[in-house]
Amino acid sequence: MSLSSAVLETGAVHARRTLRGSLLANELRTMFRRNRNLVLLGALAVIPIGLGIAVKVGTGQHGPGDGGFLDQVSNNGLFLVFAALSLTLPVFLPMALGVVSGDSISGEAAQGTLRYLLVAPVGRVRLLAVKGCALAVFCLVSTAVVSVAALLTGLALFPAGQVTLLSGDSIGMGAALVKAVWVTLLVAVSLLGLAAVGLFVSTLTDTPIAAMGVTVGVTIVCGILQAISQLSAIWPWLYTYQWSSYADLLRDPVYLSNIERNLLIQLGYVVVFGSAAWARLTTRDVTS
Amino acid sequence: MTQQATATGPAISTTGLSKRYRGGQLAVDGLDLRVPQGSVFGFLGPNGSGKTTTIRMLLGLISPNAGSAELFGETVGAGQVAQLTRVGALIEGPAHYPYLTGRANLARYDAADRTADPRTRAQRIEHALEQVGLANAAEKKAKAYSLGMKQRLGLACALLRPRDLLILDEPTNGLDPQGMREIRGLITSLAAQGTTIFLSSHLLDEIEQVCTDVAIMSRGRLVSQGTVAELREGLKARLVVTTPDPGDAANVLKEQGGQDVRTEGQRVDCAAEAELRPEVVCAALVGAGVRVQSFGIERPSLEDAFVALTGEGFDVAQ
């Protein structure tokens, strides 16, 4: 081994160690070892399993369905992934994320650990960045938990094979799995706007339960606003507006317009509420 | 700021530091504090006198309405935290993640400090746990800790790295007498190694036992600061006799030249001037047939100094 490659290797080992010892790594470990969060993820995993069993038991008992993903599940287990995501995205995923994001700063403040982190010292901007990244990871993990649980349940209970897309074309199982991964990623990204709102709300108060309530409540309010057609003018500004755009990935060719709009909305929310959280956290007095 | 000045300047200095909370209450009012490096500095005041607010401003947790605070010559602010790596702190009681073990709590705080080397983390945590006597409880979850153990874990957090300054707010809260002694011993040994200690307390005898310098707060204002000896100097020691014959004793003290003789029940006392030699006075008392139960010189305590300075008792402000 040459000297330079040895140096490079030591550098890489050092970098790896530093990464593993970083605050972000610690934040993720803390997040995914905490019982409350594991229970939330467990509950999310139970939903597709229950859904799969319900479809299995109920097959043949109902007439022609409404053409949603659920009707396709008994023909192809892979569709349980899409059915489970469409079921959890409006309520269960936002609820889990609302709890975790609302707790992110306010929970530290309520415990008093915020002051010790700040004097450790961690810069306030760095703390916010770490919390934001950890929330993004939680968005991905919680969505992936639903997808993976749905995929395993679907393949265990139902046949697999050619997948018929919404546009009518058929694709093979491998291509369909790739689609499922993209759908999962898009649903996870769709949650980022809500994560930013939760992070901001959690910088406002020292009471975690209030921040969680507000964050979950905001999603419910968005849902209500979208049910009132007279308010359609404000719909494009709601982070829930294009939440169902992931279905467009199941067309061939993929219909991008709504997906792009969804990404833009999420980016807007992350920028606006991320900045608001930054403005709040970097100027507030920490008295807890 | 030059290296020279950093090395010899004060560890903490504040100029006109003031904080008014949103309710309109002035918590800290024009504080000019100067904590020399290497001192064990007692920060004394009743509950509600602004000690914790001051400490929070020193650590950049809250921003002052007026004035500024410097640590090692560098201004403290919400965005300026670099010099805090030199500072260990215990602020208004310890705080931990109840669902993490003692060791994992320390690892998290250490990871928060980006200048702390992760390669030496395990070793430094072990050392800190040993210093505060928690090594045996390191694997227990913090929620299972007693109040005293939590206090020790808080101290361990402040000791994760060798620090130049320790800011300790009521460090012996919740500890039993043995624990208090251990912590005082720890503070004394850290001070002997050259660490500057800023110790806030409402326990006067605690400050008296360990501190070299002291500042006294009352209602948000600094009423005095200096060495413990300087502070005591303003108060004269008193010569005290306890006897069932207070009248006779008072007369003898006056004959012997005692000034400011006071009688209170069975206690008679006068100013202990240098020319008033205790052995002579005692012999005179016995010679005059006074039944002396006890006799001695009473040194003024910090509590007396505090009462003399503020004209108030050591109770909650307002």
Class from secondary-structure proportions of chain B: alpha/beta
Sheet with the most strands of chain A?
2 strands, antiparallel
Taken together, the total number of domains of chain B comes to: 2
CATH topology of the largest domain in chain B: Rossmann fold
Oligomer: heterodimer
Can you tell me about this structure?
- The complex is a heterodimer of chains A (288) and B (318).
- With 288 residues, chain A is an all-alpha fold.
- Chain A has one domain.
- Helices cover 70% and strands 1% of the residues of chain A.
- Chain A has helices spanning 3-20, 23-33, 35-58, 69-73, 79-88, 92-103, 106-111, 113-119, 124-157, 173-190, 192-204, 208-225, 257-283; strands at residues 163-164, 170-171.
- In chain A, a hairpin with a 5-residue loop joins strand 1 (163-164) and strand 2.
- In chain A, helix 2 packs across helix 9 (124-157) and helix 9 packs across helix 11 (192-204).
- The radius of gyration of chain A is 21 Å and the shape is globular.
- With 318 residues, chain B is of the alpha/beta class.
- Chain B folds into two domains: 3-227, P-loop containing nucleotide triphosphate hydrolases (Rossmann fold, 3-Layer(aba) Sandwich), CATH 3.40.50.300; 238-299, 2-Layer Sandwich (Alpha-Beta Plaits).
- Chain B contains eleven helices and 15 strands.
- Chain B has helices at 3-8, 51-58, 102-112, 121-131, 147-158, 177-192, 204-210, 228-233, 246-255, 278-287, 302-310, and strands at 12-20, 26-31, 34-35, 40-44, 66-71, 74-75, 87-90, 165-169, 196-201, 213-218, 221-227, 238-242, 262-264, 267-271, 294-298.
- A six-stranded mixed sheet of chain B has the order 7-8-9-4-10-11, with helices on both faces. In chain B, strands 1, 2, 3, 5 and 6 form a five-stranded antiparallel sheet that branches. Chain B has a four-stranded antiparallel sheet with strand order 13-14-12-15, covered by helices on one side.
- In chain B, strand 1 (12-20) and strand 2 (26-31) form a beta hairpin.
- In chain B, helix 3 (102-112) crosses helix 4 (121-131) and helix 4 crosses helix 5.
- The radius of gyration of chain B is 24 Å and the shape is elongated.
- Mean pLDDT of chain B is 87; it is low at 1-6.
- The interface between A and B is medium-sized, with 33 and 36 residues.
